Automatic annotation (TrEMBL):
Its cofactor is Fe cation. Belongs to the pirin family. This is RNA pol II transcription cofactor. It comes from Cladophialophora chaetospira. Keywords: Iron, Metal-binding. GO terms for molecular function: metal ion binding. Residues 175-285 form the Pirin C-terminal domain.
C-alpha cells in the first residue's frame, strides 16, 4: 500500500535581483521558506546578455545547476572550466572551499536555469571540492504507458527507470516532469524525505492527500511543499487543457544538524561561519588558491564580493 502525501503549503516565487544584472525567482531561502533540509536555496534564474555571477566563494554546500535555455560557462581557482548547455546539469561540491565564476553564454537571448543549494552533512563539510557534469544525452527518460507523461530521471527513479549514480554526496531525487493534456502520473518518493515541486510551465493539478477529488491546481513559478509523511505524489493535467504542464519534483534526505548560513558559507555554528569568513579573507584553510585569483570569464565585470 502507498500513502499519498498532503500539500503542506504552496507559494509564488517572486522576482529579485541577484549577482550582476541577473533576476531570480527564489523560493527556498526566503522568508516564506528559509530552509527545507537538506535544501538551502532554489533559484529560477533569468540571466540577460552581459549579466552573470562573477568570482565568488562557497563553503559547506553543494549546488545543482540545471540549464533550461541558453548556457553557462564556469571557471574556478583550481583550473576547472567548462560549459553546460540546454538540458545539462552541473553538480558542484564546495566542501572546504572553492572560488569560481558562473557566466552566461553570450547570445542575444536571456539564459534561463535553476540552481538548487543542498546542505552537506557535517562530516563532509571539509571535503575537497569537486564537479560532476551531467549531459542531457546521459539522462534516462521514463514515460507513462499512454505516453502523455515524460520524466527526465536526473536523479532517483520513475516508472521503473533509474538515474545515474554518485552525482551528489547528499542523497537527492530530481525529476523533470512534462504532462500533456489528459496525462497523469503517480510518482513514488522515498519515505521520510522532504519533498517539493517547482512549477515551470502550464497549470498542473496536484493531489492533496488520499482523496483524489481534492487537488490543487498550480500555475508557473510556484513552490509546492509536501508533508513529510507518505510516499507518493499524484499530478495531472485535465483532458481539455489548452497546454501541458512542466515542473520539477525534488526530494532529499533530511539532515539532523544546525544550519548557519552567511551568504555563500554554510556551516553548523556561528563560530564556523566566522572561521569561513576569516579563511576566505586570509586565503587559508581551503582558500589558499583564492589569493589574487581572477577568472577569465568574470574579469569584465569585476567581483561580486
Amino acid at each position: 500500500m502507498t500513502t499519498p502525501r498532503q500539500i503542506k503549503f504552496s507559494f509564488l516565487a517572486r522576482e529579485q535581483s541577484e549577482g550582476a544584472g541577473a533576476v531570480v525567482r527564489r523560493s527556498i531561502g526566503t522568508p516564506k521558506l528559509k530552509h527545507l533540509t537538506p535544501f538551502l536555496m532554489l533559484d529560477h534564474a533569468f540571466i540577460p546578455p552581459g549579466a552573470g555571477f562573477p568570482d565568488h566563494p562557497h563553503r559547506g554546500q553543494e549546488t545543482i545547476t540545471y540549464i533550461l535555455k541558453g548556457g553557462v560557462d564556469h571557471e574556478d581557482f583550481a583550473g576547472n572550466k567548462g560549459t553546460i548547455g540546454v538540458g545539462d546539469l552541473q553538480f558542484m561540491t564546495a566542501g572546504r572551499g572553492i572560488m569560481h565564476a558562473e557566466m552566461p553564454v553570450q547570445t542575444e537571448d536571456t539564459n534561463i536555469g535553476l540552481q538548487l543549494w543542498v546542505d552537506l552533512p557535517a562530516e563532509l563539510k571539509n571535503c575537497e571540492p569537486r564537479y560532476r557534469d551531467l549531459r542531457a544525452s546521459e539522462i534516462p527518460i521514463a514515460q507513462t504507458a499512454d505516453k502523455k507523461v515524460t520524466v527526465k530521471v536526473i536523479s532517483g527513479k520513475s516508472q521503473g527507470v533509474e538515474s545515474l549514480k554518485d552525482l551528489a554526496y547528499t542523497p537527492v531525487w530530481l525529476l523533470d516532469i512534462d504532462i500533456q493534456p489528459g496525462g497523469k502520473i503517480t510518482q513514488e518518493l522515498p519515505k521520510g524525505w522532504n519533498a517539493f515541486a517547482y512549477t515551470l510551465e502550464g497549470a498542473v493539478s496536484i493531489s492533496n492527500g488520499a482523496d483524489e477529488a481534492k487537488t490543487e491546481t498550480v500555475p508557473p513559478y510556484h513552490n509546492v511543499v509536501f508533508e513529510q509523511a507518505g510516499d507518493v505524489v499524484t499530478a495531472s493535467v485535465e483532458e481539455g487543457a489548452s497546454e501541458g504542464a512542466r515542473f520539477i519534483l525534488v526530494a532529499g534526505q533530511p539532515l539532523d544538524q544546525n544550519i548557519v548560513q552567511y551568504g555563500p558559507f554554510v556551516t553548523t555554528s556561528k563560530d564556523a561561519v566566522y572561521q569561513a569568513m576569516m579563511d576566505f579573507q586570509t586565503s587559508s584553510n581551503g582558500f589558499e588558491r583564492a589569493a589574487n585569483w581572477e577568472s577569465e570569464i568574470g574579469k569584465s565585470m569585476g567581483r561580486i564580493r
